[in-house]
Design brief:
binds 2'-deoxycytidine-5'-monophosphate, Rossmann fold, 5-stranded parallel sheet
């Protein structure tokens, strides 16, 4: 049975990673969180003084972009993949609102996208991969056998992120998160390089009123259909 590539794109805080992780676990595929890569580059910029007043020092970043190494390593205790930036576990820090507030600016830079897309494509050598992001079905894997495009209202998405951060002890105001969600939607859809858009052959899913279990079942059905088609 030939393995396939599954691309899950959509707006921020839509639950893409939950769906992608659940599917990867269920079918024994690798999972790659492409957003974590852009978040790691953003954290790198913040730590190294490469962003001032929401403006990135692109020249300085370009000089060091090839030294930024992002890896995913399995945490043996939680059995979850965690993000490492140049050997340091940054899984929690990259989810902060401080990083969320500047990640769209960093991810709009063409040479940053080029470097990340190359790394993402390298993960797929053996297929059998589920990747979530904004441009996976359009740019990273335009030939993916299964493409999903997720959406839900900004209010529902902000509420989800609010609860996620609260559970981690990072209490933020709901209004600030909602503003961040809307701002990122705008920047992600309007940037010149690989803007967020649904690939023509992506299946649209509004999961605003669906349970996590319902989404999981829905996705497994789509996966089985795509796998059957790819092996026909
Ligand atoms: O999925 P996320 O919220 O963790 O992604 C963080 C940001 O990274 C998001 O605002 C846009 C950017 N991103 C991107 O431009 N392309 C991707 N493939 C994934 C994320």
């Amino acid at each position: 049975m030939n393995k396939i590539i599954v691309a899950i794109d959509g707006f921020s805080s839509c639950g893409k990673s939950t769906m992608a992780k659940d599917l990867a676990k269920e079918v024994g595929y690798a999972y790659v969180d492409s957003g974590a890569m852009y978040r790691s580059v953003t954290l790198f910029c913040q730590r190294n003084g490469l962003i001032k007043n929401d403006v990135v020092d692109e020249e300085a970043l370009q000089r060091v972009i090839d030294t930024i190494k992002i890896e995913f390593r399995l945490n043996e205790e939680t059995k979850k993949n965690e993000t490492y930036l140049n050997g340091e576990n940054v899984e929690s820090e990259i989810r902060s609102l401080a990083v969320s507030n500047q990640v769209s600016i960093v991810s709009a830079i063409p040479f940053v996208r080029k470097a990340m897309v190359l790394q993402q494509q390298a993960y797929s050598k053996d297929k059998g991969i589920v990747m979530d992001g904004r441009d996976i079905g359009t740019t990273v894997f335009p030939n993916a056998e299964l493409k999903i495009f997720l959406t839900a209202s900004p209010e529902i998405r902000a509420q989800r992120r609010y609860e996620e951060l609260k559970a981690k002890g990072q209490e933020e105001k709901f209004e600030d998160i909602l503003e961040n969600v809307k701002k990122r939607d705008y920047i992600d859809q309007n940037r010149a390089e690989s803007p967020l858009r649904r690939a023509d052959d992506a299946i649209l899913l509004d999961n605003g009123n669906m349970t996590i279990e319902g989404q999981k079942q829905w996705l497994i059905e789509r996966f089985n259909e795509a796998l059957k088609k790819a092996n026909a």
